[in-house]
Design goal:
With 486 residues, the chain is mainly alpha-helical. The protein has two domains: 2-143, Farnesyl Diphosphate Synthase, CATH 1.10.600.10; 187-475, Farnesyl Diphosphate Synthase. The chain has helices at residues 2-6, 12-41, 52-59, 64-92, 98-120, 122-125, 139-149, 159-189, 196-208, 212-237, 248-252, 254-273, 278-304, 310-335, 346-366, 368-374, 378-382, 387-395, 397-413, 420-432, 435-461, 466-475, and strands at 241-242, 245-246. Strands 1-2 form a two-stranded antiparallel ribbon. It is globular, with a radius of gyration of 29 Å.
Length: 486
C-alpha cells in the first residue's frame, strides 16, 4: 500500500532487500489494528475472533483489561524493535536506490498515521456510542478458540492446543524478560553524554577508511561496553547520581542493574563474533580482561586504603581506562587492509587513556559541572585514591596520614556521604601540598604529547586529521586550579 501510494514499483529483488524492516513494521500495524478493533470484534461469535487481546487472555489467563494493557505494551516494544532494525539497516544499506530509501523513510510516519486513523475513524470507534459489556472467558470460549485455531490440524487429546499455548506463552515471557533486561541499559543511555568514544571512532576512521556498516557495529559494541561499565562503576562506588540523574541501580535495584550490565557484555561479544573476524573477537576479549584487571587494582586500593605511587596508578589507568581506547584502535586496525595496518597506535591509546582518566580525577574535585552532575567532590565520598590524592600523599607524610585517616574513617559509615567540612579540609590540604597544580601540569603535558603523536600519525598516513585535533581541544578545556572552596 505504501509503495502504491508513492507510485513506487518494486521488483522481488528490491523487496528482498527491505523485507526485514517491512516485516518489523507490519507487526506494529497488525498489533495496532487488534488494539483498536477489539471492542468491535469482541461482539462477534468467538470462533470468528482473531485478535491479540483474546490470545493474551487465554495464553496468559488475563482479564480483558490486563490483556488490553499487555497488547499496548507489546505494540510499544515492537515499535522499539522496528526502530532498532531500521537504524541498523540504514547503517549497513546506506547506498540503496532512492526508491527503496523512500520506502524505508515512509514506514515510521505510516505507523504514526495509522495510529491516528484508528483512533478517530468511525469504523474503529462506533462502539463508543453503545459500549459493549466486559468480555469474559468461559470454557466454551476456549474450546471454540482452540477449534478455530487448529480446526484443520490432527489432534491428540488437545496436546497440540497445549503446545501452541506453551509456545506463545514462552514467546510472550521472552519479550517481557527482554524488556526488563534492557530497561537499566535504556535508562543509562537516556542520560546526556558527550559521546567521546563515538567521535573518536569517526575521527580515527579518517585514517583507516573502514565501511560504514562495520563502523556502526564497532560503535554499538563500544557504547554497550561503556554503558555496562557505567552501571557497574556506580554500584561499586555506591554513587547516588550519574550525569545529574539518579544512578541506575537506585532506580532498578542493584541485582537487576548488575544483570543488565552483564548482558551488555554478552551482547557486545555476540555482536563482534557475528562479524566473522576471529582476530577482532580476540582483541575484544583481551581488552575486556585488561579492563577488569585494572578495575581490580582500583577497587583493592580503595578497600584497603593502600595508596599507590603515581607510576603504579598510571599503570592501573593503562589497563582500566586505556582498555577501551586501545580496544577501539585495535578492532579498527585489525579489520583494515593496506599499509596502515602496520602502524602502531598503542601510544595514542595509552595517552588518551591517561589524559581522560587524570582529567576526570581533576575535574571531579575542581569542576563545577561535575559538582552539578555527580555531587560535590564525589570521589571523596567514594574514598577514591585519585591522582590528585596520590600527589598529596606523596608530597608530605603528615598530609598523607590526615587525608587517608579521614577517608578510612568515612569508609566505615559508607554509603553515608563524607561531611562537607571534612571535604573542605581534604581539599585545603591538597591545595597546600600543590596536588592540584601538579595534576594540572600533567594534564597539559599529556595534551602536548597527544598533539605530538597526532602529528606523527598524520605524517605517517599523509593525511591531516582535524576531527581528532578538535576532539582533543574540546576535552582539554579545563579550569586552572581553584584556591577557594566554599
Amino acid at each position: 500500500m505504501i509503495a502504491f501510494g508513492q507510485g513506487t514499483r518494486m521488483t522481488p529483488e528490491d523487496f528482498a532487500i527491505i523485507e526485514p524492516v517491512v516485516h518489523a513494521a507490519e507487526r506494529v500495524f497488525l498489533a495496532t489494528n487488534d488494539f483498536y478493533s477489539w471492542q468491535r470484534e469482541k461482539t462477534e461469535p468467538t470462533d470468528r475472533i482473531w485478535n491479540a487481546v483474546l490470545f493474551f487472555m487465554i495464553s496468559e489467563s488475563l482479564s480483558e483489561e490486563d490483556a488490553i494493557s499487555k497488547l499496548k505494551q507489546f505494540i510499544i516494544d515492537e515499535e522499539d524493535i522496528f526502530l532498532d532494525k531500521r537504524k541498523k539497516f540504514c547503517a549497513i544499506h546506506y547506498d540503496i536506490p532512492s526508491h527503496l530509501q523512500r520506502m524505508i523513510n515512509a514506514l515510521e510516519p505510516a505507523i504514526g498515521g495509522y495510529h491516528f486513523w484508528c483512533a478517530v475513524c468511525p469504523r474503529q470507534n462506533a462502539w463508543k456510542k453503545d459500549p459493549p459489556p466486559t468480555f469474559t472467558l468461559t470454557n466454551k470460549t476456549e474450546t471454540q478458540l482452540d477449534d478455530g485455531l487448529i480446526q484443520n490440524a490432527p489432534r491428540s487429546d488437545s496436546l497440540l492446543d497445549l503446545q501452541l499455548v506453551d509456545t506463545c506463552t514462552n514467546n510472550a515471557l521472552s519479550l517481557e524478560a527482554r524488556h526488563i533486561l534492557n530497561a537499566p541499559a535504556s535508562y543509562v543511555r537516556s542520560m546526556p553524554s558527550k559521546n567521546i568514544r563515538t567521535q573518536l571512532i569517526d575521527a580515527f576512521n579518517l585514517w583507516v577508511g573502514l565501511p560504514l556498516e562495520f563502523l556502526g557495529e564497532i560503535k554499538k559494541t563500544v557504547n554497550d561496553l561503556h554503558d555496562a561499565s557505567l552501571i557497574l562503576d556506580d554500584i561499586q562506588d555506591q554513587s547516588p547520581l550519574r550525569r545529574g540523574k539518579v544512578a541506575t541501580h537506585h532506580v532498578f535495584g542493584e541485582a537487576q542493574a548488575i544483570n543488565s550490565a552483564t548482558y551488555l557484555f554478552l551482547g557486545a561479544t555476540k555482536l563482534i563474533h557475528a562479524l566473522d573476524k576471529p582476530a577482532v573477537t580476540s582483541d575484544l576479549l583481551e581488552e575486556l580482561e585488561n579492563l577488569f584487571l585494572g578495575q581490580a587494582l582500583d577497587l583493592n586500593w580503595k578497600f584497603t586504603m593502600s595508596c599507590p605511587n603515581k607510576d603504579r596508578y598510571l599503570g592501573m589507568v593503562d589497563k582500566k581506562t586505556g582498555a577501551m581506547f586501545r580496544l577501539i584502535f585495535r578492532m579498527l586496525t585489525t579489520a583494515m587492509e593496506g599499509s596502515a595496518k602496520s602502524a602502531s597506535f598503542d601510544r595514542l591509546a595509552e595517552l588518551f587513556g591517561r589524559f581522560y582518566q587524570v582529567r576526570d580525577d581533576y575535574m571531579n574535585l575542581q569542576g563545577a559541572e561535575y559538582t552539578q552532575q555527580k555531587g560535590f567532590c564525589e570521589d571523596l565520598d567514594e574514598g577514591k585514591l585519585s591522582y590528585p590524592v596520590i600527589c598529596c600523599c606523596e608530597a608530605d607524610s603528615t598530609a598523607r596520614d590526615v587525608v587517608l585517616g579521614i577517608l578510612r574513617s568515612s569508609a566505615k559509615s559508607r554509603p553515608a556521604r563524607l561531611k562537607h567540612e571534612a571535604k573542605l579540609q581534604i581539599l585545603t590540604i591538597m591545595e597546600q601540598q600543590g596536588a592540584f597544580r601538579e595534576t594540572y601540569r600533567l594534564i597539559q603535558a599529556l595534551k602536548m604529547e597527544l598533539e605530538a603523536e597526532i602529528d606523527r600519525l598524520e605524517e605517517l598516513h599523509h593525511k591531516a586529521n582535524p576531527v581528532l585535533r578538535l576532539l582533543v581541544l574540546t576535552i582539554s578545556n579545563i579550569p586552572e586550579p581553584c584556591s577557594t572552596y566554599l
